[in-house]
Design a protein that fits this description.
alpha+beta, Mitochondrial Matrix Protein, Chain A, 2 domains, 7-stranded antiparallel β-sheet, two-stranded antiparallel sheet, about 35% helix, MAM33, Complement component 1 Q subcomponent-binding protein, mitochondrial, MAM33_sf
Length: about 240
């Protein structure tokens, strides 16, 4: 029968061999080579990423310099709330709550771009945000919703007054949100006198041409800020 001492000695020598110890001295172990796939894992930034990051840095500086307002413009008489690309303007009028809701996504276009006969633009127009907006007038549990859009070609009436925006449609509903089942009337088929009276209704509640001009200023500034913020996020993403 093998003694415990012999067994223990054999186990000790096996452990020495396992951990690289020979005659009581630790042997050197060659460093393990990193495979090419592991190198690629630790260095993922490409030349294209670097070029994009450099371009974005320059673009962000240029866009910041192009900003017209240090502080967000306001629409007179309305309080403003924002959530991402959504903007909500609120005011009280007698016993009514007036809410103007809009989204600045996809609302920017060039303004007053002059062209040659060949169709080529000779001068870049100012980039302005002209969002569609919904005006909700809430009273006694009912809501009148007038959907409005900026006129592409403002036309003057017989008194020479130009409406900067127009009523696209209107509807009425109860509850929190307008449902697809709620009936609405298009401004294109609306009686002309009814249309004028609804425009007067909006004007009396502060939704006027002056309001529309201030809204363009606010929306343009807010959208531009979101654009710069998006460029910064993209730069940080590709720079990691």
């Amino acid at each position: 029968m093998m003694s415990r001492a012999v067994v223990s000695c054999g186990r000790f020598m096996a452990l020495q061999a396992r951990f690289g110890v020979v005659n009581g001295m630790a042997r050197s172990v060659a460093p393990r080579e990193i495979r090419p796939s592991m190198i690629a894992f630790y260095s993922t930034k490409t030349k294209g990423d670097q070029e994009l990051s450099s371009f974005l840095s320059d673009e962000i500086i240029a866009e910041r310099k192009a900003r017209k307002h240090d502080a967000m413009p306001k629409v007179e008489g309305f309080d403003m709330k924002t959530k991402g690309s959504e903007v909500t303007l609120v005011r009280k009028f007698n016993d009514e709550m007036i809410t103007v809701a809009l989204n600045v996504n996809h609302t920017v276009d060039a303004e007053d771009v002059s062209s040659t006969q060949s169709g080529e633009a000779t001068e870049s127009g100012e980039m302005l945000s002209k969002p569609n907006f919904d005006v909700t007038i809430e009273k006694a549990g009912q809501k009148l919703v007038l959907s409005c859009a900026y006129a592409s070609d403002p036309s003057a009436d017989q008194d020479g007054y130009e409406d900067l925006f127009q009523i696209v449609e209107f509807s009425m509903h109860t509850g929190e949100e307008l449902q697809d089942s709620d009936y609405s009337v298009s401004g294109d088929i609306m009686d002309g006198h009814l249309y004028d009276l609804l425009m007067n209704l909006l004007e009396e509640r502060g939704v006027t041409n002056e309001f529309a001009e201030q809204l363009i200023d606010l929306s343009t500034s807010y959208e531009h800020g979101l654009y710069i913020n998006l460029l910064e996020k993209l730069r940080d993403f590709v720079s990691k």
